[in-house]
Fold each of these.
Amino acid sequence: MLGMPKDKYCIYNGHLISIYEPSIAFNNRAFRYGDALFETIRLCNNKLMFLKDHLNRLKIGMTVLRMNLPAEFNSENIYEFIIQLLKHNTHAPNARIRLTVFRNEGGYYSPETNDISFLIESEEMTHTYELNQKGYWIDLFGDLKKPVNKLSNIKTANALLYVMAGIAKQSMKLDECFILNETGAVCESISSNVFVVKNGTLYTPPLTEGCVAGIMRKQIMHLAHENKILVFESPLSNYTILNGDEVFLCNSVNGVKWVGQFREKFYTNKMAQFFHDKLMQLTV
């Protein structure tokens, strides 16, 4: 039918259903309290990228939130569900998949159960990873600071900090914003982890600074090790960023994106191009 979206199906608790079929209760805890976790997984050239790492991070988050992990919620089953969904939505060879886990309804702030449900959605993408031709223009989002605690490293559905940073980004006509932690150091951007390059060495905030334990962050650090590039996990101050030769961002959906300007400082993108090329080799 003309105008119908291609993503017509989703997977809810292992069952393929129409996206128009009501299945989420009005008292869903993800909606009411943000009592949920999610992973965004990339399909590149018909290859699910880093699925095992995504599921490991999700399980760590479920442990932190004291959600029960069903036996059937394993890598093999989730892989099969995703492939089934991609086939029915005809999303290939490139797509974005969102896997959301939420505590079942019941209770108010104190839940009645720690059992979970899950939802898998897919969205077609027209390309693999692409390095931006023009460097991002970026600045600080200083209105709200990110707390550093055991929730900081996992991807919860509590995203108001990032929403507010996104609104600020739009109002300032920027491409991205740096997020500050409670000590005032840069810990990440709105949707990515941050790397600074100085004299061929990489610097990125440690997880103790409150950044999300990024899947692509892990890959960049692994690729750096393989190619004998030094990586130091250390807090990023404004001075560190302004003193860098390059700054680039990374996440599992977009790959590597280089920063062209922060404040009065302009950057090159040689290292960003290097990691983009290495990343593309993994999609083959």
Amino acid sequence: MIADLNEVSILIEGLDHPECVAVHPDGSVWAGGEAGQVYRISPDGKTKEEIGSTGGFILGIAFSPDLSWLALCDLKNKCIWKLDLDNYSLVKFSEGTPIEKINIPNYPVFDNEGNLYVTESGEFRKVNGKIFKIDPNGITQVWHPGPFNFANGMAISKDQDCLFVVCTWLPGVERVGINNDGTAGEREVYATLPETCPDGVVIDSEGNLLVSCYAPNRIYQIKKNQEVRLFIDDWEGHTLSNPTNMAFGGPGFNTLYIANLGRWHIAQIQLTVMGLKLPCHR
């Protein structure tokens, strides 16, 4: 079933090519810009505030489970920043391990214990992506050495027993198990999306994946049985324009917010199913 593109609306304009979006439990929508900006947007989309900047290029963002800080993946500075949500101060949280530095920190995902998984995309057109894991104290390890074919967006399952990893040049989604001791488990190709450049992924409350594609301007649904369906298509590329990261929020937690790197806005659509709540929403 294809969602009606006319049901997609613009939450807010005037952002600097946002790649990322995250929703705070208070309803505010947060996004980043290509010059390092961090935006806080009111739930109704009427106002926005630039609360800080890293001077880099913000890729993925994620709220910590205790909502004390926001993780920022910075392409230019090749690090993960820790943005304190009380005073908006910024400190570098991780640049990788002493031996293996992060080249393209693309997307962060927290587990319930506050561990942060981060996709390291590797190098453009080279299959050398990996996944880092950073504990609450900033101690960093290579959690899975890959190699992944440009590891990009990521989502953790409801039971936190696996990670879904978007691999842009696969192109498709891989599933990596999380063992009981926290180590990486079995890895498999979960679904392929031929002739696309998938970027972001979220999970709904029924366990289906929604995968946004930088190109073409589409969102696909991957059902629990791994059947792939086209969900939204925008051949003009105006409402969905290089859609990248997505996040659930809204009063019923069934609003899907979509960042559009190709333009200046966050889009939104009301779905009939709720999103899977992240650790910060639980």
Amino acid sequence: MDETTEALFSEVRAKLQSKDAAGAMHQIWPYVSAHPQDGRGRSLYGLALCMSGHEKEGIAELKNACTLMPTDAQARYNLAVALHQNGQTALAKEELNRALQIDPNHASSIAMLEKLQNAPAEIVMAQPVDYASQMPLYGNPQPTVNQGQSGMQFQPAATTITSLFVRCFLGIGWGAAYAQYWTLWTNVWFIVLNISSSSLTDLVYNCLFYAVACTVMGSLVGMVVFLLRGNRQTGMIAGVSGGILLLIGEVFFFHDTSVLINALFWYFTGRLVGYRIGLKSERTP
């Protein structure tokens, strides 16, 4: 890792330790946007989101970091702490066990797992973890789990609702934009197959129909993917689902019997449209 990146990570860690979660989040985001495959950056971004009250989004980022760094015990531990704070203690234990499979001597995972296994459930849930003091931030010594102090309470950030609306509109916009791949391909295909058997008026009408249908479906797919803070895989699943719905509409309105080849068409185009939407979602804070 180059010195510039290491210096950036050190500054972000310092902000997290001083509980300046918003500052850490805004500082690390440009790097994460430009380097979505860097698990360390995404882990720090996930911690910042959790500390800012965006725990659902933070957990998603920490899961992405674990996927990118499958042999990193600290990444698993970070995710376990976030899951526990979010009330998902059973899943937290699973992540701690995975961390110990990677590194049997991981001190923080051993201590936290003992705490969760020995303490009654109501006591565990009554003592949320202080992210800033309990999570090992890359490059720092491993902390121990505080068994007696309840830690800081996190409230949802005031920007959470606003950001949901922003992501909703962004999803609709990008979904409609990338849906024009659908519009172009469907119209070209329709014209080629029907130019000899349809009048110019019918061709124009049907092309407009496809343009509207594809744009609406793309907007819905984009909205869902952005609200879920989905990645490329989520986008492809949503895109294929949208393609299936468009196929059903095509059969219903045009009584097209060539379902198999149309299904293949909508499947592959849906994957591509969804991939592009998911990629844009990944790079949107």
Amino acid sequence: MAKRAGAWDGNVAGEMFVDDSCIYCGACFHMAPHTFHDADKHSVVGAQPTNEADSRWAHLAAVSCPVSAIGSDNKSAFREAAAALPIAYHDNIFWCGYTSKKSFGGLSWLIQRDNGNVLMDGPRYAGPLMKRFDELGGIQHIIYSHKDDIGDAAKIADYYQCPRYVHIAEEMDAEEQLALSEPYALDDDLLLIPTPGHTLGSLCVLHNDILFTGDNLWWNPNFQSLSASQHYCWFDWPTQLQSLETLLNYDFRAVLPGHGQPFIADTPEQMRDELSRALAILSQDRCSKNNQNIWECPNG
């Protein structure tokens, strides 16, 4: 529970605040960027919500904080947000919220499908979230982008008795261990793309024109570009860049990451241009490992 006594001085006055238990995962300012701002090593309320939409997203982000570092005087909005997640985000995709400290606030996504719903990575296990999952048709498959962002997916898999899919190189517990060196079609609308680099067994998942990127790629609002992090690359940075380059071969409009801000382009061509522009920056020799901020471009 967030405490006013521990609120950061950088919070603007008003009903919402962030306290000093913040771990700087970034989940809040990616879910509700109008309200929560990056204050360099922690988040703050940079602008109090002034309309219903901003208030709703701010409270969804508060419920989703992995360490409950966000407080609000509006308790009814908290209760409504707790019951609303996962929230519809784009087409048949739902933003799960309820991020887990185990995955450092990693984002997870629900794909609602006629052939069985898919949970992409793992949120925190919470009663209201499970109730909403049930209402949306349950979970038939769980796909891990890599070993860092699984949250409480094992507990969710046990509840639904559904298989978890992971690249075998991640060396972790899952029912389906996939030894992939080439893209693998799990279904007509689910293509698992091996993208080693961030970890040896990192995967991207293509669903129609939506690409779930794990910790491979995200939108950087500070630089208004797609980005990735050399500092937070656990296996091999040149390999990660090569993997990102292979994504130019696919048509997609949306990048939905595990960490970082999502991005939706108008067309696959625009997305390809954005990815090409990002690769040109990320591949420059002045790329620095000293950058400690996962949201910044390594060349920033």
